[in-house]
Amino acid sequence: MKNQEIAKIFNEMAKYLKMEGVDFKPFAYEKAAISLESLNEDVGEIYAQGGIKSLLEISGIGKSMAGHIEEYLKNGKIKDYEKMKKSLPLQIDELIRVEGVGPRKVKILYQKLGVKNLKDLEKAAKTHKITPLFGFGEKTEKNILQGIEFAKRSQGRFLISKILPVAREVLEKIKKFEGVKEASLAGSLRRGRETIGDVDILAVAKNVEKAMDFFIALPGVEKVWGKGGTKASVHMGDGFDMDLRVVPEKSFGAALQYFTGSKEHNVATRRIAISKGLKLSEYGIFRGSKMIAGKTEEGVYKAIGLPYIEPELRENEGEIEAALNGKLPKLIELKNIKGDLHCHSNWDGGKNSIEDMVKTAMEMGYEYIGISDHTKFLAIERGLNEEQLLKQREEIKQLNLKFKIKNLKFRILHGCETNILNDGSVDIKDEILEKLDYVIAGVHSSLKMEKKEMTSRVEKAMKNKNIDIFAHPTGRIVGQRDKYQIDFDKILQQAKETGTILEINSSSRLDLRDTYIRRAKNKGLKMIINTDSHRKDHLNLMEYGVAQARRGWAEKEDIVNTFPIEELLKHFKQNA
DNA sequence: GCCGTTTTCGGCCCGACTGTTTTCAGTCG
């Protein structure tokens, strides 16, 4: 599918246009990109079927965009884009990732200082070349350096939701390849970590050579790093590396255990093996030279006196002790989820209608969905005001009625995502919030507030008896933004006292993150896993929130949207 | 650059904050 490739180019063209200070055009390019991204059919297919004319039917695609698409499909290039790159040859994406640096600043930095990439930018900032520039200053320079630090930390790692679908596709192909008996993902991807460096795949194959050749010739492979007797390594067009290791069948479990890691967990398990007079390696468990286990992971753990430990727990953060004492958690599973309560519709900045969102939720086997559009403070998301909320409530009421008539067991809940303002109040009147089924509140502005101030700001919001869920509690966005300053212990305490549910956000926020989830669980708090969907296909992100929850040792009972609706409602303040 | 019935031209994605200014541009959500 060329959809994503073209969308990426359109997004970049939008940035170039922004650099030039062009009005509105960038928005048109971004809109076209979103449209392509969320298209279910292959744009190449659409074009092949109906030519330019059918391209024009895609929303946000006009004459000019259709022309670009045609050009790309035919020549693999878009002339206008090539021209832009030539006139300003720099790494926009990289530079823009630095918080506080946007397209306009990038252009100035390039023209005045020749900054082309992150490295140039860092050098310029460190040698204090930025401060004297017109429109810049000391503070900007300092912020840039901080931004670079963050960008560096997250470099080379990819968000799990970007990688897992690609990795799964490859895995399926390998599994189906002739002579492949078994195959599995391993590494941090299998442990469900929020970011992934590279993908590890293990397989058992009759003909190692053939399996390797198949692997390195897969579509999406951009470069082959190498191919040996047991391992092949490639670079994918999506930007990450992927390894395939072919291991003997009798060692598959041991290898899987070893390559799943983490390193810390492996050190601990090997230590236990040693204490029992055994040797654990990626080839198996040995007593002297005799192999006593290794075909399956379960067998490996059993041989050292442990029950099976779920991959998400393998961080040597107490899972070994828990296993020894029979106290391992029974982790929540994706299939336990009965609904999603943080979903946006086209009433605000979302893409799909309430009905479309509902339909998708039903197809997923959910029992309920909660519509929680932004409220008025967030102008960019076209947040709803009091009046609009009431109007929306009417529409939801009608839809619910329709389901009842059709005798379908499904319910739409009506909520909203309010904004916690600087003083801890929210932007919708209480008498309106009271009427909704539930209310989400989140911090969306003044993120650089001081810790004490931010903490009491949120504490105050939690005390509001209409606010049921505190969304994305620490404000971080993976790879983009650090969490804001907040006293998390105090937030946990306040959540406990007020019965506020903490959200685990499945989108690129993945916030709460694993360690915080565990702290919340230990405190006996209830959480909810939501997707924060802005369009229907985002509803699928749920599994990443679940993975994060599993890493935080969460069980079904800790997560309120595993409950049937009647029980779920009991956890909201007004019904408690 | 896209879109459309209140418009085929003139609206679109706005408001707060920051850091820089001396009245505002750029960035962010």
TrEMBL record:
EC category name: transferase
Taxonomic lineage of the native organism: Bacteria, Candidatus Staskawicziibacteriota
One GO CC term on file: cytosol
Catalytic activity, as annotated: DNA(n) + a 2'-deoxyribonucleoside 5'-triphosphate = DNA(n+1) + diphosphate
Official protein name in the record: DNA-directed DNA polymerase
Organism: Candidatus Staskawiczbacteria bacterium RIFOXYB1_FULL_37_44
Family annotation (PANTHER family): PHOSPHATASE YCDX-RELATED
One Pfam family it belongs to: HHH_8
SMART domains: POLIIIAc, POLXc
